[in-house]
Design goal:
The protein is α/β, with parallel strands linked by helices. The strands form four sheets. A nine-stranded mixed beta sheet has the order 1-11-2-10-7-3-6-5-4, with helices on both faces. It has a seven-stranded mixed beta sheet with strand order 19-16-15-14-17-18-20. Helix 10 crosses helix 15 and helix 11 crosses helix 13. It is globular.
């Protein structure tokens, strides 16, 4: 079984909370190979986030061992570029400019190179990037926000943790231990991270070999008060239930009783991993749509705009539905319109479907102002959200809905929403429901819908209302 580690006494198996600075020492001289960093809500250190400690440890390892390669991964290229390369890498050079003055950052490669010819490489796991990752061997692999990564991908990448490197200590040449660093906001107890680090088994219930090499570290926002404003803690105090457990207390959660969706339904029917092609198996889809649940304002406390990509394929006598990606976020109207237009092109989508009584007319105006060739169906939610979501829930339970990889925030939202509780339905869930219902062809059953595909009408509306 994995043990909690006290970093200034690596042999301790006792659980404690740690000050953020102590993880800086987690680099060369310890006897664990797998580290899980479990944290509550994002821990900010000089605006760098929870990744700063692990990145610094990796840079220390790179500086110690000449010609070594180290890999930092996140689910998407965009996420790792913005959060780690543009953020943490540059912050670390700024915060310790004397220490890292000779480290060169390469924007085109998302990498850092050292005087001793070592290299730290950042990569997303989307867009078939796994093949290029597997072309090298590494002595450190860091999975950032690993709750967004599936076990199949994790295990495939681990096959490249095989580089033999050496460093010198007190005049003696030593081999650098291979290391796996992992961090996450704790997801469900059904997640593979919980199985590995808390139960000592793989997702298929196979016991871990060398379980004593797995250690875990826990940090919560209370450990970092010196670097966080008091207002931040006021926000955390408003969190309740699963949100408090996951983001504040750093605790894993179980299935929510009364929720319309179960994590097991998702996990059991997730797209299968192809070990030969190093990617998830996805049939050639017959139709792809973008479901949108638009936010009507763009303020700090505004709702997010739900943006879900979904597709369908008839297999034998049944139609199956595939959830491909989640671009939900808090955006200005122009920002989410640009995302929808770009993803419509990227996925070669057939249509956009948006809820009209939540600003759907704005969706049509914004998108058609840039590209009036994109067909948009506006659907009006005439009945309750639970009634709309039930057909999708039933399909999910029966195994007809498949997640392409892991869409952790969408999965969390749909497995936590309890219709009878009076909770507001999440934006991701609404966007997903509209997309799947459109693919089913049942939007007419549960809503009044109407299509807006007439560019002249849209352009006239824009002129009349002075939107642009």
């Amino acid at each position: 079984m994995a043990t909690y580690l006290k970093l200034n006494d690596i042999k301790s198996i006792n659980y404690i909370d740690y000050n953020i600075d102590t993880i800086y020492d987690l680099h060369v001289n310890d006897n664990h190979n797998y580290f899980l960093f479990v944290n509550g809500k994002k821990i900010l250190v000089h605006n760098s986030g929870k990744t700063l400690g692990f990145v610094r440890s990796i840079w220390n390892r790179a500086a110690a061992a000449p010609n070594s390669r180290h890999l930092i991964l996140r689910s998407t290229h965009r996420a790792i570029k913005n959060s780690i390369f543009k953020g943490t890498f540059h912050d670390l050079k700024r915060l310790e400019k004397d220490r890292w003055s000779n480290v060169t950052l390469w924007k085109s490669e998302l990498s850092a190179t050292f005087e001793n010819k070592s290299e730290v490489i950042c990569s997303g796991l989307d867009d078939n990037r796994i093949d290029s990752i597997l072309g090298n061997e590494y002595c450190t692999i860091y999975f950032n926000e690993a709750s967004e990564i599936t076990f199949d991908v994790y295990e495939t990448v681990l096959s490249r943790l095989a580089q033999v490197c050496y460093y010198e200590k007190d005049g003696e040449k030593k081999q650098l231990n291979l290391k796996v660093f992992i961090d996450c906001n704790p997801p469900s107890t059904k997640h593979w991270l919980y199985s590995l680090f808390y139960k000592g088994i793989k997702p298929d219930n196979t016991p871990l070999k060398h379980a004593d090499k797995y250690g875990k570290i826990k940090l919560n926002p209370g450990d970092n008060k010196e670097n966080l404003p008091p207002k931040y803690y006021e926000i955390l105090d408003t969190y309740t239930g699963k949100k408090k457990k996951r983001f504040v207390l750093g605790q894993y959660t179980d299935d929510t009783e009364g929720a319309l969706f179960k994590q097991a339904w998702i996990d059991d029917n997730r797209c299968k991993w192809d070990n030969n092609a190093n990617r998830y198996i996805l049939p050639e889809l017959e139709k792809i749509v973008i479901g949108v649940d638009p936010a009507t304002t763009n303020k700090a406390n505004s709702d997010e705009t739900g943006i879900i990509i979904a597709g369908s394929k008839r297999l034998d006598d049944d139609t199956h539905y595939y959830l491909l990606n989640d671009f939900t976020g808090r955006y200005s109207p122009k920002e989410w319109a640009d995302i929808i237009i770009n993803q419509y092109s990227e996925y070669k989508a057939n249509e956009v479907v948006a809820e009209s009584n939540q600003g759907g007319d704005l969706v049509a105006r914004n998108i058609h102002a840039e590209n009036n060739n994109i067909p948009i169906e506006l659907v009006h939610g005439a009945k309750g959200k639970e009634i709309r979501a039930e057909p999708v829930s039933n399909l999910c339970e029966r195994g007809y809905i498949h997640f392409y990889g892991m869409l952790v925030e969408l999965e969390q939202e749909i497995t936590e929403w309890i219709p009878s509780s009076g909770m507001k339905s999440p934006n991701r869930l609404d966007a997903m429901v509209w997309a799947v219902l459109h693919l089913i062809g049942d939007t007419n059953v549960v809503a009044e819908d109407f299509a807006i595909n007439n560019a002249d009408y849209i352009n006239q509306s824009i002129r009349d209302e002075g939107v642009y």
